[in-house]
Design a protein that fits this description.
single chain, 82 residues, mainly alpha, 3 helices, 0% strand
C-alpha cells in the first residue's frame, strides 16, 4: 500500500474528541483518522452508487408531470419553518 502525507488542520475540539476515541479503540490518532476517512469514503460511494442505480434513465424533466399535479395548499403548521 502506498502512503502519502497530508497536513490536516482540525478544530481543537474535534482533535480532542478524535484522540479520546482513538485511545478508547487502542489505536494511534493517525490510524483512527485514516479509518474514519476510509469509512466516510465507503459510505458516500455506496450512497452515490445506490442513487445512480435507483435513478436509472430518469431525468429531471421526468418529474414535471408529478409537479404539475401538485396542489397549491399551504404546508401543515408542523411542516413550516418559523
Amino acid at each position: 500500500m502506498t502512503k502519502t502525507s497530508y497536513p490536516l488542520k482540525l478544530p481543537a475540539s474535534v482533535k480532542t474528541a478524535a484522540q479520546r476515541l482513538a485511545r478508547e479503540d487502542g489505536v494511534s490518532l493517525n490510524q483512527w483518522i485514516s479509518v474514519a476517512v476510509a469509512e466516510k469514503i465507503g459510505a458516500v460511494e455506496t450512497a452515490s452508487e445506490f442513487l445512480r442505480r435507483r435513478q436509472g434513465s430518469a431525468t429531471p424533466s421526468d418529474l414535471l408531470p408529478f409537479l404539475d399535479n401538485a396542489g397549491n395548499e399551504e404546508p401543515a403548521t408542523e411542516d413550516k419553518f418559523e
